[in-house]
Amino acid sequence: MERTLVLCKPDAVQRGLVGQILTRFEQKGLKLVGMKLRQFPKELLEQHYSDHKERPFFPSLVGFMGSGPVVAMALEGIDAIAVVRGLMGKTNAREAAPGTIRGDLGMSFSNNLVHGSDSAESAAKELALFFPGADELVDWTPCTLEWSYSVG
Ligand code: GDP
Ligand code: MG
């Protein structure tokens, strides 16, 4: 099992798409193990996107992410990191395939609705950043587990 960080970006919250986005992850069979809505401080967002700090769009990206509330979720499942990235679609929403979140719901490169961790290292770093408390992520067993994964 893997855990990954998903953010519903400010455009998703403003457009009232958080429920639809969460539904896609739930329907796929990913387990929600943490969730919060916050307007996150600039310092945290700069740390979150530190890999991009030399890129020209870094200030506008951090500004956008801090411009309104964001919903942060921790999702768990087999290959959760890659599965989430697949459901999100390509970064530029105009190029994202139909059927993906960005492909179905967005038209922008920057305001592209969702973030998902891109590797095990990023997931560990990002989950610790957005869910620092020891009790913020919950271990639980969905009654659908065997039916979703055919395990056991
Ligand atoms: P992601 O992993 O698919 O979210 O994409 P990246 O890690 O490459 O970039 C992080 C975020 O920065 C993207 O989701 C976009 O919101 C934004 N972004 C990336 N590249 C560009 C760009 O060339 N221009 C602008 N305006 N925003 C960008
Ligand atoms: Mg990325």
Features:
single chain, 152 residues, alpha+beta, Alpha-Beta Plaits, four-stranded antiparallel sheet, binds guanosine-5'-diphosphate, Nucleoside_diP_kinase, NDK-like_dom_sf, transferase, cytoplasm, magnesium
Layout of strands and helices, then pairs:
Layout: E1 2-8, H1 10-14, H2 18-28, E2 31-38, H3 42-48, H4 58-65, E3 70-77, H5 80-88, H6 101-105, E4 114-116, H7 120-130, H8 145-149
Antiparallel strand pairs: 1-3, 1-4, 2-3
The protein binds guanosine-5'-diphosphate and magnesium ion.
Word description of this protein:
With 152 residues, the protein is of the alpha+beta class. The model has no long low-confidence stretch (mean pLDDT 97). The chain is 40% helix and 17% strand. It contains eight helices and four strands. The chain has a four-stranded antiparallel β-sheet. The chain has one domain: Alpha-Beta Plaits (2-Layer Sandwich), CATH 3.30.70. The chain starts with a strand and ends with a helix. GO terms for molecular function: ATP binding; metal ion binding; nucleoside diphosphate kinase activity. Major role in the synthesis of nucleoside triphosphates other than ATP. The ATP gamma phosphate is transferred to the NDP beta phosphate via a ping-pong mechanism, using a phosphorylated active-site intermediate.
